[in-house]
Amino acid sequence: MLTLKLALRNIVGAGIRTWLNVVALSLSFVIIIFMQGLYNGMNDQVERATIDALYGGGQYWQKLYDPYDPLSLTDAHAVVPANIESLMTNNEATPILIRQATIYPEGHFRSILLKGIDPNQHVLTLPSFLLNEHRNLKGDGSIPALIGTRMAKSVGLQKGDEITVQWRDVHGTFDARDMKIVEVMKTPVQEIDNDQIWISLDRIQELTSMPGQATMVVLKQKVKDQKSEATFKNVPGWNFKNLEFLLADIHALVKQKTIGASILYTILLFLALLAIFDTQVLSIFRRKKEIGTLMALGMTRAKIIRLFTIEGAFHAFLAAIVAALYGIPLLVYIARTGIALPASYDTMGYAFGEKLLPAYSAGLMIGTTLLVLLSTTVVSFLPTRRIARLKPTDALRGRLS
Amino acid sequence: MQNSAIIKTENLSKTYPLGLTALKALDTVNLSVATGEFLGFIGPSGSGKTTLLNIIGCLDAPTSGSAKVLGQPVESLSHKEAARLRMNRIGFIFQTFNLLPVYTVFENVEFPLLLLGMDAERRRGHVMDALQWVGLADRADSKPAQLSGGECQRVAIARAIVKKPELVLADEPTANLDAKNSHHIMQTMVQLNKELKTTFVFATHDEKVMAYLNRKIVLADGRIVKDEAGGQKSNVRDQKP
């Protein structure tokens, strides 16, 4: 209790020196939590956006479908089985038919995926309703098509442009039609944007002579949440892919980025601890006469070591309070308003959206605070071991033995 | 009437390693100090007076011989026992005052009582009494940086005597003070010696201090060469040449 009282008296008495340390350390607290919150928010955002726009509550894949093998698309189509179709009828699932196709923007050959989706679906956030709005195009009967901003940019298309699309039908016969870009959709999810043209499902089924067929069926999230995993077993010819499987790539990416974030976290923590360590070393060097005086007045070395260690830990404790005072309002404000991202972030392969919304969990806050407090105490203690070797007479002379 | 010995050394020697050789700071010092004495170790720099004071203050241990301070053998005290002895029974006054800079005058004087675990009310009374003795009661809330050198040393005296120790050790207490302040400080300590019966031991080469001492022990090259009591020379122990 006495040591605690003396430590408090010392750090309050040190005035501006204490507060400089405290403010510097509190910055580390806030930056560490902010950076971790940013990563958490990014990961949540990417996962949420991809689920909303593409994965839904899971997907049934036609058994031959392999997204990593474009050649599999030729045969990856089948009539949707009755038990899955019943989900579609109840608006709890939506089918997607995927075919390989070719476009010739500005005279160049380009392989793309032609995807058909029900314009009336409410399973995914993909704005398929736009295809419905332009269903009755006037003129030469161009097919309404939807592309993403990345696709538009890479092939030089914009809303209202027409482009010739060539594909093979179910018999392998080449066919081609002009398609009119009725909208360029802005989506953070590249998997529904890059090298893809979306048209209505009935049109693609008609054009490829695959009535009632699909490559995959996407489940509505709510449906998946309400029913147990066992409900979604594989059906003959179709394999069920749950979110864990579908998000595996994102999780792998997140894991990779988390390692990077951990390095940053470690560096920030290291800098904060270095500041404390440095302060302690300087403090012991500067206060060696004081240490000698304390010894002369009857304090044992153990008590002096405890005093200096508690002083260091107090810095972290005060820093946590100061960080809470300005950090919580600041972080809450940033979490609410988000951080606007420049357009160039779109190319990073991450579905960020226009804004990054950091996510701070109680675990992150408490964990970071405890970690910093604990490591600060340890780091505060390390330099004080020197005191154990200090002779009172040397200390009084201002010498470190 | 001769009081009991508060300090007694027998063949006390202290050697410091100095590269390949050794420096003998104290050489077979035999000394006896009675309770209530007001004495000083006198001698030039390097004569061993501070070393002797440090050993008496249990801040250092002898290389050979023995030193008994307040009935405790210094050479066999552990760090903890030495610290306890200093905390309970010895007061220190340093040449450079050694006040704790972030504490107020009151807190500096209060510090030894905090270590003793005295309750707040008694602490306050003792601290204010000590500050009254040194005439600084009105500066209790000042920080050392706001005081003059003389005032700082008076605070250091108050800190040394606040717990009413049996022994006060003062190492060159007037070295950083002007003549007026030196006399004021010494008069304060003489008065405390008389009122509290505290034994004062000085290490000094300041003539102003010497004038107040009732016993002067002159050291040269680590040995006692003269022991004058009551302004008159007393017999100097026969030490080896």
Distinctive features:
heterodimer, A: 2 domains, 13 helices, elongated, B: alpha/beta, Rossmann fold, seven-stranded mixed sheet, 7 helices, 11 strands, 33% helix
Oligomer: heterodimer
Which blocks of ≥5 consecutive residues of chain A have pLDDT under 50?
none
Could you say how many structural domains of chain A there are in total? 2
The chain-level structural class of chain A is alpha+beta
Q: Give the biggest sheet of chain A.
A: 9 strands, mixed
CATH arch. level architecture of chain B:
3-Layer(aba) Sandwich
The greatest interface between two protein chains, and residues involved on each side, is: A-B, 24 and 26 residues
Average pLDDT confidence of chain B is 88
**In DSSP terms, counting alpha (H) and pi (I) runs of 4 or more, how many helices of chain A?**
13
Order of helices and strands of chain A: HHEEHEEHEHEEEHEEHEHHHHEEHH
The structural domain count of chain B equals 1
Distance between the termini of chain B: 33 Å
Strands of the biggest beta sheet of chain B: in what spatial order?
6-7-8-3-9-10-11
Order of helices and strands of chain B: EEEHEEHEHHHEHEHEEE
Structure description:
The complex is a heterodimer of chains A (401) and B (241). Chain A is of the alpha+beta class. Chain A has 2 domains: 2-51 and 250-396, no CATH class; 59-241, no CATH class. Chain A has helices at 2-13, 16-55, 82-89, 129-133, 149-155, 201-207, 221-226, 243-246, 248-286, 288-296, 301-337, 362-388, 392-396; strands at 59-62, 78-79, 93-103, 110-117, 143-148, 162-168, 174-185, 196-200, 213-214, 216-219, 238-241, 339-340, 355-356. In chain A, the strands form 3 sheets. In chain A, strands 1, 3, 4, 5, 6, 7, 8, 10 and 11 form a 9-stranded mixed sheet that branches. A two-stranded antiparallel sheet of chain A has the order 2-9. A two-stranded antiparallel sheet of chain A has the order 12-13. In chain A, a hairpin with a 5-residue loop joins strand 6 (162-168) and strand 7. In chain A, helix 2 packs antiparallel against helix 9 (248-286) and helix 9 crosses helix 10 (288-296). The longest helix of chain A has 40 residues, at 16-55. The model of chain A has no long low-confidence stretch (mean pLDDT 84). Chain B has 241 residues and is an alpha/beta fold. Chain B has one domain (5-234): P-loop containing nucleotide triphosphate hydrolases (Rossmann fold, 3-Layer(aba) Sandwich), CATH 3.40.50. In chain B, the strands form 2 sheets. A 7-stranded mixed sheet of chain B has the order 6-7-8-3-9-10-11, sandwiched between helices. In chain B, helix 3 (105-116) runs parallel beside helix 5 (149-161). The radius of gyration of chain B is 18 Å and the shape is globular. At the A-B interface, helix 1, helix 10 and helix 13 of A face helix 2 and helix 3 of B.
